[in-house]
User: Which sequence fits this backbone?
């Protein structure tokens, strides 16, 4: 990692904060990366991230050898997830749903089933178990095998 924004066009934003040097020899320079960064800690702003991505993203995909040539698929048995529903007047006991739209299943579950003990302790009611855990729960509840 570098402490400087990786977009070579960064100084072209020509903001007042990018001005350096003394009278008669002033110049614009790239932004130093602060506490708010974008693109995995490489860019000063979303604009810089987008400019860089526009130019290099295809090259990055091909160089890394990660271009996909077939659509990625999630099959029936791996399509489980937990959905958190929130809305005014919504009964709390209907907050969490174990769902598999491919199987046409929408089962109301408890908070204890929907969240990890850590998530419950943190009191982040919108966080839920991941898809792997959701599949395990479906098996536990006899909805999948
Ligand atoms: Zn920048």
Assistant:
């Amino acid at each position: 990692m570098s402490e400087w924004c990786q977009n070579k066009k960064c100084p072209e934003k020509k903001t007042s904060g990018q001005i350096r040097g003394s009278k008669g020899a002033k110049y614009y320079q790239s932004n130093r990366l602060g506490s708010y960064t974008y693109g995995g800690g490489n860019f000063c702003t979303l604009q810089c991230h987008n400019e860089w991505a526009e130019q290099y993203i295809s090259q990055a995909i091909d160089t890394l050898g990660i271009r996909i040539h077939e659509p990625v698929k999630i099959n029936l048995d791996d399509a489980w997830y937990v959905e958190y529903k929130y809305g005014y007047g919504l009964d709390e006991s209907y907050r969490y749903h174990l769902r598999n739209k491919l199987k046409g299943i929408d089962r109301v579950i408890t908070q204890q089933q929907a969240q990890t003990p850590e998530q419950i302790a943190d009191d982040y009611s919108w966080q839920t178990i991941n898809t792997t855990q959701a599949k395990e729960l479906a098996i536990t509840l006899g909805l999948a095998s």
